[in-house]
Amino acid sequence: MAGFSMRPCGDFRTTYRQDTRIFDTTYVRNAAILGIVAVALIPFVLDGYYVNLFIQISYFAIAALGLNILVGFTGQISLGHAAFFGFGAFASAWINNMTGIPVLLSIPLAGLMTAAVGMLFGLPAARIKGLYLAIATLAAQFILEDFFARADWFTGGSYGAAANPINVFGYEILDDFSFFYVALFFLVVMYLLGTNLMRTRDGRAFVAVRDHYLSAEIMGINLTKYRLMSFAISSFYAGVGGAMYGHYLGFVSAEGFTILLSIQFLGMIIIGGLGSVKGTLMGTVFMVLLPEVMESGVSALSIFEWANSTAVTDGLAYIKEMAIGLAIILFLIFEPDGLAHRWKQIRAYWKLYPFSY
Amino acid sequence: MKTSKGDVVMKRLIAATAMVATGLSFSAAKADEVFVGHLMDITGATGFIGKFYADGVRDALSYINTHGGIDGTVLDSESVDYAYKVPQAIANYKKWRSRNNMVAMQGWGTGDTEALISFVAQDEVPVYSASYSGHLTDPTAKNPKTAKPAPYNFFYGASYSDACRAMVQWAAEDWKQSGGSGKPIFSHIGDNHPYPNAPKEACAEYATELGFEVTAPVVVSMKPGDFKAQCLTMKEAGTNYGYLGNLGPSVVSLVKSCDTVGATPKWLANIWAGDYETLKTIGDVENYVFPAMTSFWTDEGVPGMDLVREISKMSDSSGSEFRTHHYIRGICSAYYMKEAMEWAKANGGITGANIKAGMYARQMWVPKGLEGVCMEATWTAEDHRGINTVNIYNGSAKGGDVTVKKITTVTLPRRDDWLGY
User: Fold this and answer.
1) DSSP A124
2) A-B interface: how many C-beta pairs under 8 angstroms?
């Protein structure tokens, strides 16, 4: 509903083309561009801590968008997203180390490799769905995790793999300040691609498969093809996000890509809003910042004398972990449609202010 | 209504952030002060053992601070529980780096240590981890096998590989003395994860060199469970010496499962699996061999233990709490850093690069006041194997009564092909 009320009076659509514009109104488009420019100024205004948080948000957000395409747009499920994220990280390091292909190119190549692996593990989706598919993708998580620890030639086994820094025209990107812009570039490009995907024939087919697969099939949509394609695109995004993560850290260890991270990815898209590109970004921001906000809350307490004993600090550490869980639960109860929905409501509220009825 | 609620939350957030920021800017304003970050895991996946070590580091840092700091320079520190989540470890590192001007860090496990290798090398921040992976010991990548040199990573203790090698060397002697015939059989038992895997190849190679027959590694989950199947595999293979790569509850259930099916090799535990608490939980076990890098809480007549007991009072004023040797190892880790910082202060100021140089300034050194507690250690610019001597203990438990005896001390050669591996 809010979507319609956003449009200025007299601005109506006469062609389908107009109906699928990325930005609803010129104002929204300008705001988005201004937003990106404002974000680009972050390193000049805020300190390294915020820059790092933004970089974390960008690689997680890219991977989370992939998962949202699979879960939110196509209605499939994956519990192995972290494994694909990890595969991308190892693949990019491997491509770069073995062939000398520049890092900037090996990141999308790693995405393609991950897409192939994702399709392989997405094969069961042709036959099964729902909880059964969830378990089948869980296999991907465990198989790949084991593969990371064993495949010495590819991942360096338990020693991990070294990943070179990104090199742009001979200039090595070593510090967070410059990596920030690489991350921003990838984030914008991948999100534009994601938004555009949903305006294409294939994107509409994804949504049709999600909404009612039988009707979709009757309409001539090849279910197997689109489910597999969704797995491939989803893994491509995971691979690109993972590759950025690997080159950012400079080192990829087999330890970081557990099922917990997979579930965190699911948390990001559920909190942000299933089936919303914008929501994915919001959900990622929420999941990355929540522990940090809790942490600063805990350290803010340290100005009080009573909060400085070991017993209290340890107690607070537990409370912090529980509070993160609690915040997520409360969020799901009070905003089950995700942050994207809340954002729409806030906008509608201000748009119609003060006469909301 | 809804937005106003959001407003309140936002205001609180801003207030909290402002409080943190002002707190930090105060500390930055003080002239003679250095900051050391401390990452610990007390609530996460490795919290079972992380808590003991973290307490040691934390108590030592606050003891140093209340007793003169670094030759008069105030040692500011913050201990943050990152719950073994790598992104949070990175964020904290970046925060300390950009806001507190951190000069050195006390870290914890494989996850955070490895994720930070590149950053700390670039920022020149020495990290003292409790991850004893052999591949952190080759700072200049002298050994071609080293994937990623870690020039700013230090740890106090023998690497997992060296500790395992030392135990295998002892086992070879033990086999002869106990009159075993034929080749003794050695198995690596652990999860397929970086931490249990760290010494797998290195130790198996040395075991083969010493005349052991090495079986295929036995994979046992890091989470506790019923491991009788794995135990039967070992029984069938006739394992005489089994290296335990996991820690805590997983090791407890493994040893118990094996006891049930009658597979009772001599256990060679890695350092995190060998302590009083673990033995007590197992309840009934014999020949549980493990390495230690410090004296024990109950040892008497060790001069340095007085200081350890004083440090322990920082969080336990009664002085009655029992401390594991992980706790004491945490103290050693903090004190080697402290003395390197003192050297740095006298030689150009407390910066990361000077602290690193301070680590190389002396040979076979023990921090002052901890004689007999920490072992003599030597770090050089090309070799970060601080310690190549391993004290080996034999633990046993009967009905929950634990006895631990020292059996030998093994000094390993600093072989070039073992560097970083």
Assistant:
1) G
2) 130
